[in-house]
């Protein structure tokens, strides 16, 4: 009997980068539409067994930032871009692969303030529908090219005997989602989803409020400039 070790299922990775990006999954460069334009969303399916995501992003000038999220087959958000990612301004051998040892140049990702009031954090345009918990990340020094990486959590799976449908042998060892027979896990998950939805709505409302304040200030400045020009 042939035995294989795998984690079943697929995840979906979504990435925005200002301006151009290269995406790596467990050390392998992925060709996907979108990374060559800051306003286009790069979306790709990745194996649920993925260990490491690497994103190289180059900023050609002006504002800069990366946002990303990973969802499972049910649409549940597993992770988003935040300070749990590590970023560096140095490209090192093996930085995109699992098992890479980060040196002192790899720091927790910095939140990029210029985008906080809108753009990638808004629920519109190409990134509409992405989690409102995501952050726009970069290096603290606003380097022109950055390298950011994140290892995926594997804790939601448990190892048990099962049949790999792609394996013609008699059986396989497969990773399956954990199950809570008591039903408490399901209740907890529902409560967490409701709380998350509430946080997302509150964050969206705050973003819209701040964006309106900015637009009002712009309108006020234009009016003042017009009045001065008419004098």
Q: What can you see in these coordinates?
A:
The chain is an alpha+beta fold and 231 residues long. It has 1 helix and 15 strands; from the N terminus they run βββββββββββββββα. It has a 6-stranded antiparallel sheet, with no helix packed on it. A 4-stranded antiparallel sheet has the order 5-2-7-8, with no helix packed on it. A hairpin with a 5-residue loop joins strand 7 and strand 8 (77-80). It is globular, with a radius of gyration of 21 Å. The N and C termini lie far apart (90 Å). Mean pLDDT is 78; it is low at 1-6 and 155-186.
Biggest β-sheet: count, sense, barrel?
Answer: 6 strands, antiparallel
Q: Roughly what fraction of the amino acids lie in strands? A: 25-35%
Shape: globular
| SS content category | alpha+beta
Instruction: List low-confidence stretches.
Output: 1-6, 155-186
How many DSSP helices?
1
Rounded radius of gyration (Å):
21 Å
Give the strand order of the largest sheet, numbering strands 1, 2, ... along the chain: 4-3-6-13-9-10
Number of strands: 15
| H-E string | EEEEEEEEEEEEEEEH
Q: For the terminal residues, how far apart are their CA atoms?
A: 90 Å
Give the helix level as a range of percent: 10-25%
Oligomer: single chain
Q: What is the mean pLDDT? A: 78
């Amino acid at each position: 009997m042939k035995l294989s070790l795998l984690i079943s299922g697929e995840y979906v990775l979504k990435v925005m980068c200002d301006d151009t990006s290269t995406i790596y999954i467990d050390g392998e460069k992925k060709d996907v539409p979108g990374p060559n334009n800051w306003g286009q969303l790069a979306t790709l399916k990745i194996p649920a067994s993925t260990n490491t995501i690497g994103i190289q992003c180059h900023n050609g000038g002006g504002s800069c930032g990366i946002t990303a999220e990973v969802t499972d087959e049910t649409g549940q958000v597993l992770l988003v871009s935040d300070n749990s990612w590590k970023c560096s301004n140095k490209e090192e051998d093996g930085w995109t692969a699992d098992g890479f040892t980060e040196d002192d140049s790899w720091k927790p990702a910095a939140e990029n303030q210029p985008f906080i009031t809108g753009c990638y954090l808004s629920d519109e345009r190409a990134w509409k529908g992405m989690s409102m918990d995501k952050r726009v990340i970069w290096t603290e020094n606003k380097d022109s090219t950055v390298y950011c990486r994140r290892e995926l959590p594997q804790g939601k799976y448990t190892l048990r005997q099962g049949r790999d449908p792609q394996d013609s042998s008699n059986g396989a060892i497969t990773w399956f989602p954990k199950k809570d027979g008591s039903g408490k896990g399901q209740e907890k998950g529902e409560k967490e989803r409701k709380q998350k939805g509430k946080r997302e709505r509150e964050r969206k409302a705050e973003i819209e409020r701040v964006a309106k304040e900015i637009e009002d200030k712009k309108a006020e400045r234009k009016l003042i400039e017009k009045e001065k020009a008419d004098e």
